Amino acid sequence: MPARATVAERSTGSAADILGGKRVLITGGAGGVGRAVAARMVAAGARVLIADRDELDLRRVADEIAGGRQTDVIDTVTADLSSGPGLGRVFERVDAWLGGIDILVAGAGVGSGPLMEMAEPDWRYVIESNLASYVACTQGAISRMQSEKNRDGMVILIGSISVHIKAVGESVYNASKGGVASFAETLRKEMIPDGIRVTLIEPGAINSAMQPFSAEERAAQMAEYRLLPPEQVAEAIMFAATRPAGIDVVTLRIEPLVQKIH
After folding, report:
1. Burial of 81 from C-beta contacts in 10 A (0-12 / 13-18 / 19+)
2. What is the pTM of this model?
3. pLDDT by residue (tens digit) across 228-252?
């Protein structure tokens, strides 16, 4: 395992200086953004645990990042983070494989429809997946950082530009992502005495399977600058994750040039 950089080295160093040896949990790790962040974190020398609901997708991502080689820098855990047992499974793996945590990137989530087109179990699942899981994962991560007196810990929460647009049909989704935004901005103030940084990333429309379009339609929209490449959202996350100690990226909003506005 690479030696962990000192605070002085991290203050002016490269991504590898800052992230080398860091223990990272990425939820939603099998999605486009999660995959891109995991690849960049591993390349910078971090040890990364990716969590998501589909075991085959997770294994595929880990194999791609590892290049088919035996490695101890990336591992997977299959869990539905909307449930207590799923959350418990993730943090059991955090403790057993990572041995603690330095950075949480919370990006798990699901889409939704308008409230009146959803049954109660369905909208509750959206809230549990997109908001409650963020709160629970953040609490689990910070409690471990505090127990280690880790004053260089970081929590990066993936929100959404949708809370500013308030598009018709996204009432339930916006309820969850609006909660994430308020949670992140308030928690950041609470964590300052511990030296733990909290960042909110608010992407616009991303080229992902959550979009209600075929792969061909998404490619066309990418060409028209209507969808963000997942890699660009990952770069925004990496920007926040590689700031030196004492520098806090509070909120970072990134969107395609032609972002929908209603």
Report:
1. buried
2. 0.91
3. 999 999 999 999 999 998 899 999 9
